[in-house]
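Tutorial, part two.
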Amino acid sequence: MSVNAHNVVTPLDAGPRMETVEWWLMALQPPPPLALAARLTELLAPYLAWPVVRVPDACLEAGELLLSALLISGSTERGTALDLLAVDALVSYAFQAAADAPDQIELRAAQAMQRISALPQAVRD
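Running the prediction step on this input gives:
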């Protein structure tokens, strides 16, 4: 394993089992705090078997789904703090991982902004 310039762990000579979203999540350096790591694992569960190159997609999709659920619930209680941190972490990790393909980052950012900015409208409809 090695850590790239974006503090994302990448495999040096990884076999297929290591080239998954699950492996990437478990190899994050520095690791997220335990409660956040557990929540991220839960939120990324549907994507854990995806190939590691799909980390940006998995993180953005999971973050979008959680943010949508938070907006729909209208909850502003302290109990949602971990979920808000998780959304922030997922989007941040998505772009850290995407930075390894700089030629696609502008398009990915535009698509993410479009999808996320549409969430409040979707909640109102």
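The chain has six helices and two strands. In part three we will examine how such features are distributed along the chain.
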